[in-house]
Each structure stands twice: as C-alpha cells, then as structure tokens.
Design a protein that fits this description.
mainly alpha, Growth Hormone, Chain: A, 2 domains, 16 helices, about 80% helix, globular
C-alpha cells in the first residue's frame, strides 16, 4: 500500500536534502492550495501543455515529410520506427524515472527531444527531406519518449498534495485535448508556410518552452517509507519490485486489467472502425471529423469536470458504471444511420469514456506510492500505447469478414469487461479519491 498521507504530503526527510530530484524546495505542511490556484501546479501545467503541443506539431511534420520523401509504405515504416522503441523500452523508462527522479528525467528528455528536432529541422532546410534522416529522428524521439512518458506520470505527486491529484489529472486531460485541437492546425500551417523544416522548428521551440518552467518547480520530498522502495540493488530488481507492487495491490492490479480490456475494446472502433463507418455511410472525411470532434468535446468536458470538482464520490463504482455505459454507446455508434445522430452518440462516448479514463488515471495517481509512480505509469502506458493498437488490424480484417455491426458489438463487449472487472474487485469498486 501507499505510505502514510501525512508524511508524504508534509515532505518528510531532513528538509528534502536527500531527495533524488536535485534541488528541492519543500512545500510546507499547511492546508493544500487548490491545484488550479497553485502557481507551482500552473507552472507544471504550462510546461506540460507546451511540450504536448510540440509533440502534436512534431507528428504532423514527421508524417508529412515522410510522405513527401518516399512511398506511403515507406512513410508507415518511418512512423513504426518511432513507435517500436517506445513500446520495447517503456518499462525500463519507468525504472529510470523512479531512480533518477521525474523532474530531472523530464527536463533531460525534453532537452534531448528539442535538440534532435531542431537539428533535423536545420538538416531538412539545407538538404530537403530524406527517409534515413526522418527514420533516425523517429528512432531517437521514440527512445526518449520511453523515458519521458513514465516520468511525466510520476511528476504530479511531487508537486502537489495527494488530495489535489484528481484535479491535476483533470487539468492534464484538458491540456491534452486543447493541445490536440490547436496542434494539428498549427502543424499544418507551419508546413504550408515553410515546409517540414519550419514545422519541426516550431515543434522544437514549443518543447523548449517547458524547460525553464520545469526548472522552477518546487518539489515535495518523499517520506522515508517511500524512498526505501527505491533502494533496490539493480534496475532489474527495481522493475520486479514495481510489477510486484501492482500485482499485490488491491486496487492497482485489477485497475491495470480494467484499463487493458477497456483500451483493447476502444481503440479499434474509434480509429479504424470509425473510418470504415464514415466511408460506408457516405459521410466522408468531413463527417468523420465531426464525429471525432463530438468525441473530443465529450472527453474534454469529462476532464474539465474532474479538474473543477477535484474528486468524484465513489470513484471506483462510478468508473465501472461509466466504462459499461461507454461500451453501450460504442456499440450504438455502428447502428445510427445519420451523421447528426452519430455525432451525438460520439459525444456520449467521449463523456463516459473520458470520465472513466480520467478516473482511472486519478486512481492510479492516488493509489500508487510516489516512489513507484514511474514504473506503474510505464505499465499503464505500455498497455495503452503498445498493446491496445494491436487491435486495429484485427478490427479492419473482422469488419471485412463480418461487417461493422458485429465488430463494434464485440469490441464494446471487451470494453465492458473492463467495467465488470472494476465492479467485481472489492478494493477497486470501493476506491475513493482523497478529498
């Protein structure tokens, strides 16, 4: 289980001098300031938003440059080159984040990502897009992401109190949605104005903005009970300790299974399945965009709800119910004939799936001992970014063989199993967010 709340939130240790995160200015033990009014959290939010916005512009630039430099198949290989190291090295990245401290790792990985993106921007400006250059960029970026993502997940527990972690996770969800809405057109405008080189430059500068904000963060030191978990002799022992922490935890173990089932049932229909549905219904790319916009709006509202309220009573029970409700909405999406109805159903999917996803993330943050957060986040990210996308080719093949209705129904059933896991696991069903 986690360390005692009072020792963790008051900083613990000898004035933070033994923290693994470099220079630490301890937050005192006074009543916690609401996250949306905490300058420390707002600096983190600005750094995170800028970095994610840069990521969105980067992916637009990379995909455009790869298509211009080679065939569609070669462009697909370039994108895969970036995804593979992220999946293969993610668990190791969680160990690094917990051993070195999340702020140090996030600053270092952002510095590397910024440098390599700006270097490639200069190369492309001088020579034009070449596949080997883009593949090398994707490889380095994906490798650094394997360390960056777990560290990002471990950072919130070091900058605010435990009762504010739900609100912080909601704020993070809102930032993700805003970055997605702004990043794609910004990347497209940069490509149109100056080509891939200009877009990579914009991406690198946006990532660079996060560095001074991260350096200025005040960090909470871990209590002695938390730091003791970091003292394994080898990285391999650290990794095993993190996996054991998940397996033995009455909330985290079933939560990871629920997340895996939910993502496996969700990713296929909302990616490949939606594209096929829009094509067969005659909605076209514009119609697909409206459906995705409905989903994005719903998910953004769900994150905003958590950011404003800070907690949802009976969080575990609500998570299970919203997973099952979102699964029903996913199945219904294949049955509606009109675009307007599909947008409305997608809005419901976004609200329900967005709320369940936000609550899962908040429960992960609050139930995990801070010393394990990098490793636990790595496992969660591996499930979502590494395993769940494997369902997409199966979705496409099954749709050709049996039609979209059965595929959406089976996917929804798999997703609903995640909700069932939440409801039948007593520890998870009764889990509450601190408040």
């Amino acid at each position: 289980m986690t360390a005692p709340t009072d020792s963790r939130d008051s900083g613990g240790g000898q004035n933070g001098q033994n923290s693994r995160d470099g220079r630490v200015a301890l937050l005192d033990a006074a009543p916690e300031r609401p996250a949306h009014r905490d300058p420390n959290v707002l600096r983190w939010l600005g750094a995170y938003t800028s970095s994610v916005l840069g990521d969105n512009v980067y992916y637009i630039a990379l995909s455009w440059a790869a298509v211009r430099a080679g065939t569609p198949a070669q462009a697909g290989i370039v994108m895969t080159v970036g995804a593979l190291p992220r999946a293969v090295l993610m668990l190791g990245g969680g160990v690094v984040a917990d051993r070195l401290g999340p702020r140090r790792v996030v600053i270092g990985s952002d510095a590397v990502r910024c440098a390599v993106v700006l270097a490639v921007a200069a190369v492309l400006f001088l020579t034009g897009p070449r596949l080997w250059t883009l593949a090398l960029l994707a490889l380095v970026f994906g490798t650094v992401d394997a360390v960056f993502l777990p560290a990002v997940g471990a950072l919130p527990a070091r900058i605010t109190g435990r009762t504010q972690l739900g609100r912080v996770h909601g704020m993070r969800g809102v930032a993700n949605r805003c970055a997605g809405v702004v990043g794609a057109p910004l990347g497209g405008f940069a490509v149109a104005a100056g080509g891939a080189s200009a877009a990579f430059t914009v991406a690198g500068l946006l990532i660079a903005v996060s560095a001074p904000l991260l350096v200025s963060l005040r960090m909470r030191a871990l209590s002695g009970e938390d730091t003791a978990a970091e003292r394994a002799a080898t990285p391999w022992q650290d990794l095993r300790a993190g996996l054991r922490h998940i397996r033995r935890h009455r909330v985290l173990g079933p939560l990871m299974l629920a997340v895996a089932l939910g993502d496996l049932g969700f990713v296929g229909p909302l990616n490949v399945g939606l594209a096929l549905l829009a094509d067969r219904r005659g909605w076209g790319a514009e119609g697909m965009g409206w459906v995705l916009a409905g989903f994005g709006a719903g998910a953004g509202l769900a994150s905003l709800l958590l950011a404003v309220r800070g907690r949802v009573p009976r969080a575990g029970l609500v998570t299970g119910a919203t997973v099952i409700g979102g699964s029903v909405a996913i199945a219904a999406l294949a049955l509606v004939p009109g675009l307007a109805a599909a947008v409305a159903v997608a809005l419901a999917v976004g609200l329900l799936a967005g709320l369940s996803g936000a609550l899962c993330g908040a429960l992960l943050q609050t139930q995990t001992a801070p010393a394990y957060l990098g490793r636990v986040t790595a496992v969660s990210s591996l499930v979502s970014l590494g395993l769940a996308p494997l369902s997409m080719p199966f979705t496409a093949g099954a749709a050709d063989a049996w039609g979209l209705g059965p595929v959406f129904a089976v996917s929804a059933a798999v997703c609903a199993l995640g909700g069932v896991v939440v409801l039948v696991a007593p520890g998870l069903r009764r889990a509450e967010l601190p408040g």
